[in-house]
Structure formats: C-alpha cells, structure tokens
Amino acid sequence: MTLQDFLMLDLPPLLAAMLAGGTCGLLGSFLLLRRESLIGDALSHAVLPGIVLGFAFTGARAGLPMLLGAMLAGLAAVALIAVVQKAARLDPGAAIGAVFTTFFAVGLVLLEVTGARSVDLDLDCVLFGQLETLVWTEGRDLAALLDPAALAALPRQLGLMAGVALVVAVAVAAFWRPIKLACFDPAFARAIGLPSRSIELALALLVAAAAVAAFEAVGSILVVALLVCPAAALRLMTDRYTVQVLGGAGLGALLGAVGYALAGPVPAALGVDLALNAAGVIGTLGGLVVAAAALLRPRRRPAAAAITA
Amino acid sequence: MNPPAPLEVRHLTVAYGEKPAVWDVTWSAPPGLTAIVGPNGAGKSTLLKSALGLVPALSGEVRFFGRPLDTVRDRVGYLPQRASVDWDFPATALDVVCMARYPRMRWWGLVPRRDKEAARAALAQVGMADFADRQIGRLSGGQQQRVFLARALAQDADLVLMDEPFAAVDAATEAAIVAVLRELAAKGRHVVAVHHDLGTVPEYFSSVLLLNARVFAAGAVQDVFTNRSIAATYGARLAVLDEASVGAGAVGA
Fold first, then answer.
1. Nearest CA in chain A to B151
2. In chain A, how many domains are there?
3. Which terminus in chain B has less CB density within 10 A, N or C?
4. What is the largest CA-CA distance in chain A?
5. Which residues of A touch B159 (CB under 8 A)?
6. Confidence (pTM)
C-alpha cells in the first residue's frame, strides 16, 4: 500500500468511521445513564423520512437539507412518542417501539415514492452505510493535506460528520454540569433552576444529528451499535463520570478505526484476499467489547442488597 | 406586620389524569419545622413537587417568602425521595453534594474549591465525611439518604422541602437527620417534610399539616395533632370505600 493509496482510499473512510464512533460514543453515555438507550435506537431510525424528504426537495445528496430534515423528523418522533405515551397510556418502551418503526417504515416508502432510490440513495447504503465509497481524488501526497483546493475535494459526508462532531463536542463541554445533573436527577435540576427540559431536548437533537451524520458512514442499523456499545462497555469498567463520558467517545473512535482497518486494509496488507463490510466489522467489534467487559468486570458492582436496602 | 410565610399555597389543585391528588389546598407553612402527614396517596409528595413546579397544577398559586419561586429559588432547598434516582450512577458522594451548588458555578470546568469545601462541610454535618470519595452505589440506604440530606444542606437555603426524609432509614441515619433538623431550626431556618411515622411527629416537628387530598387540619402539633383529626384524615379513605362497597353491593343484589 502506497501513501497515495492511503490518502486517496483509506484516509476519508477511516476519519469518517472514527468521527462517527467518537460522536456516537460520547452521546451514548448520556443515553445510557438516563436509561434511554432505546431513544437513541428510535431516533437513529426515525430520522429516515426526514433524510429522504431533504434529499427529495433538493434532488441532491446535499448535507444540510438532509440534516435539517432529519432534525425535524427526530423532533416530530420525540414529540409523538410523548403524545402516544400519554394518550394511549402505553409503557414508554411500547410507545417508542411503535413510533420509531413507523417512522422508519414511512422513510422506506418515501424512498420508493419520491424516486430518491433510483438516483443514488439506495436501501443498502441506508441500512449498511457506504464507508468504502468515500474517496479523496486529490489526495496524491502529504502536501495535499495543507492545500485548500485539494482539501475542498474531500468527500462532503466527511465535512458533515466533522461539523456535527464539533458541534456535539462543544455543546457537551459548554453544558457539562447541567447535562450531568439532567442525567442523574432531572427533578432536582429543575428544582434548583437549571434548564433541565431544554437540556433533554437538546440532547435528543444532538443524537438525531449524530445519527444522520453517522448514518452515511455506518448505516442506520449500526448507528445503534455505536450509540450503545462503547457506553455500555465503559459502564462496566468505571465508576467515574468523566471517564465514562470521555472514555465512551474514545472507545467509539477506536472501534471505528480498528473496525475499518480490519475490514480491508489489514487483510490487504497481509496479502489476504478478503474485503469485509466495514460497518459489519465495527458493529461486531462493538458487541465483542461489551461481552469482554461483562466477562472481565473490572468494576466490582455493588451488591444488590446495597441498592435495595 | 409578620414576615411572609416560608411557603404559602392558595387553592392549589393537582391531578394525575382524571384523579385529583391535591384538591383545593389553601395552607401556609408556619416558621420552623413542619410535618405533612396523611395516608398513602394523599398527595403529600405531590403538594411539594407542585410547589416546586415539578408537576403542573390545574389551578392555584404558590408563594415562597411571599414571592414567586423564580425570584427566590436560591432560598429554597429540596430533598427528593431517595428512590427517585439511580444510585448506580458513576458519581461519588462528594460529586452528588456538589450538585447543590451548580447554580452558583459556571457550567463547565472544575468545581471551585469554595464550593467543594461547602460540600465537604455538609457531608461532615451528616456524619459522612469519611465517605466523600465513595461511589454512591456502594453506600447503604441510610448513608445514601444522608448524602441527599447533605446536598440539601449544601444549598444553604432558608427553607428546605423534604420528601420522606425518614423513609426506610437505620437508627443512626434517623438520629443524624433529627440532629440536622434541630440545627436548622436553631439557626432560624424552616423545614417542610413529608412524614409517615405518626408516632414521632410530636417529637421531631413543631407544626403539622394533616392532608388527604384536602386539608384536614393544620397548626401547632399540640393543638391540632389529635386522635380525632388523625382519624378524620386517615378515615376519609375508609368512608369512601364504605360508600363504594355499599354501591357495589346494591348492584350485585
């Protein structure tokens, strides 16, 4: 493998996988601590109709309209889950399950109806992502990394992913303490005047945005793996909030990098004729990491008696 | 003129779905230590949560020190029920107590030393200084309750609303809570606590509100905490049940 091959073919998907894993891993801890991992699952699927409509309106795979459509669909899903839960007096799990599968199904139908599918938003890429198609045609040598014209030729999915990752990182840093309290004790947060409700809504929006950006990299199914697996593995390994949150982001990025490398470049470098679906490898690794953490249990969990006493 | 009551509610009505939990309650908490007493489901916790704006009221008005909550939030502390949070959360006892002081801090960065010291002092006050760095899931139930009490103390509020502070605690914790209540009263602070142990009301509190959706009696413990008013508060439910069973019998007959 030459440097040129790496820059043109491997760098963009590697970065996309790492940014997707890091962003989802960061947000995943908050979902897990709020016992809302299913919301991440729901949002990552419920955004599909918004993505398709954003695509249909502009007729092109432009990042911002699709992101906007996805955020609106995510908001609508969160609101509808609350309404269904209240009106039908369903248990939260049932309300979430009913809403997100419906949204996802509507998205699939829209994909056919709007003709988006025939262009280049096909079902396979929705489900499994398309990491391998991210190429940097101008990445001929290291100098290209500093050349604005060459950088402008980077795949636009990568730009969207980087933008969302930056927004998520800044938001999490700036609202560090309100988010922590909204995860641990939202009622107390509201009692002392912190904007707990707005924080909860903003978290949902960030998850929707991360899901859209990551969806192009790893597909809508495996976004869930990135939202759940790093956070769950860290939960089994640490009792410290900072380690949980930042470690989740780090582990997510690592999963993205290692998963992508194992899917293609490593076997290729070893001369093995084996090309795997990168998203599949990343998801599988995520499951293995959680399983390993559960088996090793570095963190001694408190005795059940201590919790109930 | 007397200073305004620490907490005053007027015509407060709260309902969950179609079932009213608090019905047209008009009451003002006197200074000092006050217990809210009543049977299960009488709306005691709901009254506190509604006063703090945590559950919406259908109607009514709430005043703290004669003013709306938003303008005096730093004077009002809150001790939620212990069961309301996940104690497996990755946080130490000190982390949790520091949360009381979040409104005084920036939203990012390290907790200022001043606030950390205030949190440690609050932990010491409830006899938990040695457990500051322990993960909260590895504390006993009573110790967890004392961490919550320390958090309420670290708010340094003039009035603390406590939701079942004595629920399922050991003798050492109960003694620690009582000592804290007396210190607060001695400093001229006020406490309104939901309480379920009728036997200890006269010993721990100076005033009482007997609540069963409606107000049945309110005032100084020695004046209103009588067998008659207690029976009326707790019997209201029985009387309703009697009527219901008579009705059911009539249908069945």
1. A188
2. 1
3. N
4. 64
5. none
6. 0.86
- A→B contacts (Cβ < 8 Å), by residue, are 33, 35, 173-178, 180-181, 183-185, 187-194, 235, 238-241, 243-244, 301-302, 306-309
From the CA of A282, how many Å to the nearest CA of chain B? 27
Q: Do A190 and B53 touch (CB under 8 A)?
A: yes
**Domains of chain B by start residue, with CATH:** 7-252 (3.40.50.300)
- The complex scores an ipTM of 0.88
CB contact under 8 A, B105 and A177: yes
Chain centre distance of CA B146: 14
Tens of pLDDT along chain A (309 residues) come to 678 888 888 888 899 999 999 999 999 999 999 988 888 888 888 888 888 888 888 766 666 787 788 888 888 888 888 788 777 777 778 888 889 899 989 988 888 887 665 555 666 666 667 777 788 888 778 888 888 888 888 887 788 889 999 999 999 999 999 999 999 999 999 999 998 888 988 898 898 888 878 877 677 777 888 999 999 999 999 999 999 999 999 999 999 999 999 987 777 777 777 777 788 888 899 999 999 998 887 665 544 444 443
CB of B149 closer than 8 Å to CB of B111 = no
The answer to whether position A50 is within a domain reads yes
The answer as to whether A146 is a domain residue is no
Cβ contact (<8 Å) for A235 and B90?
Answer: yes
Q: Which residues of A292-308 are buried (b: 16+ CB within 10 A; e: fewer)?
A: ebeeeeebeebeeebbe
DSSP class of residue B108 equals S
